[in-house]
Amino acid sequence: MASGVEERVRGMAGEGEEEEEEDDRPQLSAAAAEALREFLAEQRRDGAGGEGEGGGGGGVELVAEDWRLSQFWYDERTARALADEVACLVSGLDSSSAAVACIACPTLYAYLKTSSPDVAAQLLEYDERFGQYGGDFTFYDYNQPEELPAAMKHAYRIVVADPPYLSKECLEKVAKTVSFLAHPEGSFLLLLTGEVQRDRAFELLNVRPCGFKPQHSNKLGNEFRLFTNYDPADRLGGWEKSDA
Ligand SMILES: C[S@@+](CC[C@H](N)C(=O)[O-])C[C@H]1O[C@@H](n2cnc3c(N)ncnc32)[C@H](O)[C@@H]1O
């Protein structure tokens, strides 16, 4: 788990920062270490596990990011674009079956419920602070990809996933969860992850990159992409042409 955090936190070093020497143990760059110190100080100010405006804005309250859980929230533009896309997909479906599963993407869930409160959305998350969403929260650990309530099996026409780590193992397990949740009549799948997962994501989930580039409130060094199993055409920049 630490390696995933390291992978992302490392990417937060400012441009021109020199990478530290590779080591078996997780290591932070000077810039990331400084950012981590600020984060811990902020957490102490908020009180342990305290809530705060962890990014986003626009009236949507998020809990503070916890980097130990690989939490990096979308910026407002990204969260709004994703919420609009999901609402657009929902509007084209029979309302009785248009349920949305948000796997490890609490910011999307929060924006979606603010902009489209009537959309049936379920947040699958490891961080129990999101229990604040009541029945819309389901505890989820990607290491037990199918340990979910039976009622959720094949119940979602729209599935959005943002796996916590950029590893093969994590994507394979999340892919199992996606299969578990996906509707027998087919589901729209949106996967947010690093560009480095492009080939694996295609093999496991048949998704292709879109032109739209997701961004985070705290800039990450890793290039992030949105992959979908359908061509959004004139939305989200459509499928990347060279890959079509
Ligand atoms: C990269 S973040 C994605 C968040 C997204 N960018 C957003 O703004 O909503 C990964 C998410 O995975 C969650 N997570 C951490 N460990 C997990 C685990 N073992 N199983 C499932 N989810 C986990 C974190 O709480 C975090 O919300």
UniProtKB/TrEMBL annotation:
Residues 15-24 have a biased composition (Acidic residues). This is Protein-lysine N-methyltransferase. Residues 1-10 have a biased composition (Basic and acidic residues). GO terms for biological process: methylation. S-adenosyl-L-methionine-dependent protein-lysine N-methyltransferase that methylates elongation factor 1-alpha. Belongs to the class I-like SAM-binding methyltransferase superfamily. EFM5 family. Keywords: Cytoplasm, Methyltransferase, Transferase. It is an enzyme of class 2 (transferase). The keyword Cell membrane does not apply. GO terms for cellular component: cytoplasm. It holds the Pfam family N6-adenineMlase. It comes from Leersia perrieri. GO terms for molecular function: nucleic acid binding; protein-lysine N-methyltransferase activity. PROSITE patterns: N6_MTASE. Residues 1-29 are annotated as: Disordered. Its EC number is 2.1.1.-. The keyword Zinc does not apply. It is found in: Cytoplasm. InterPro entries: DNA_methylase_N6_adenine_CS, Efm5/EEF1AKMT1, Mlase_EEF1AKMT1/ZCCHC4, SAM-dependent_MTases_sf. HAMAP family: Methyltr_EFM5. Gene3D superfamilies: Vaccinia Virus protein VP39.
